[in-house]
Amino acid sequence: MRGSGSVDVLIVEDEPDVADSTADILKIAGFSVAVTPTVDEALTAVTTSSFGCVILDHHLADQSSETFLGGMEQTPPTIVLSGMGQGELAKLWHENTDRLFACLRKPVTPQDLIEVVRSAVRPDPAGLGDRPPRPWGVGTWVYARDRRTGRWNGGFAISEVLEDGYQLRRLWEGDVLEQPFAFDDVRPERRSDPFR
Predict the structure, then answer these.
(1) Residue 83: CB partners within 8 Å, gap ≥ 6?
(2) What is the pLDDT of residues 36-65, one digit of tens each?
(3) CATH class of the 6-121 domain in this structure
């Protein structure tokens, strides 16, 4: 494993070019990074070192992300990167909501990756202090509740943390929604169960 000790991010990726480019993006953003190509090495690493979060490729040559997620009682916040279709991605989130911080569909823009990692590693980027704890920040993918119907809708990311809620943007169009959402009307994808 490259990098050791107390590190912000552990990258688990078996393709060297992808691992190197992901590490470079995060290093430029100011994160310390360690890289390992296998789930077994990652499981050993998280028991012997401290990590702010883990970025895990869903399909590795030796095993899948579920092996890592099931191999530990507690894991650092884990971000899974996957090229899966939306249905498979939803199933992965649904089955692992208590263990995943986020699940990002490839290709991921450098800015989206940095924002999600920042939310995982530094959970209070807005300095919320004594306000109700909200361990998610700018870039976190969320579901927002429509107050009229009570229905939870996906496809949003937090674009700004406000005094009493969040400003959201649509993930694919990128446009910011006109009205802000109260804290109680926003749930990170990793903590909600939108498929019930």
Answers:
(1) 58, 59, 105, 106
(2) 998 889 888 888 888 989 998 887 766 767
(3) alpha beta
- What does DSSP assign to residue 162? -
CA nearest neighbour of 155 among 179, 180, 133, 175 = 175
Biggest alpha carbon–alpha carbon distance for the chain: 51
124-196 to CATH, choices 2.130.10.10, 2.30.30.10, 3.40.50.300, 3.40.190.10? 2.30.30.10
Cβ atoms of 103 and 80 closer than 8 Å: yes
Torsion region of 17: left, alpha or beta (phi above 0 gives left; psi -120 to 50 gives alpha): alpha
Structure tokens belonging to residue 15:
């393709």
**Residues 7-24: pLDDT tens digits?**
789 999 989 999 999 999
pTM: 0.61
Residue where the block lists tokens 């990756």: 113
**3-class DSSP assignment, residue 121:** helix
d(CA 167, CA 188): 14
Tell me phi and psi for residue 45, to 5 degrees: -60, -45
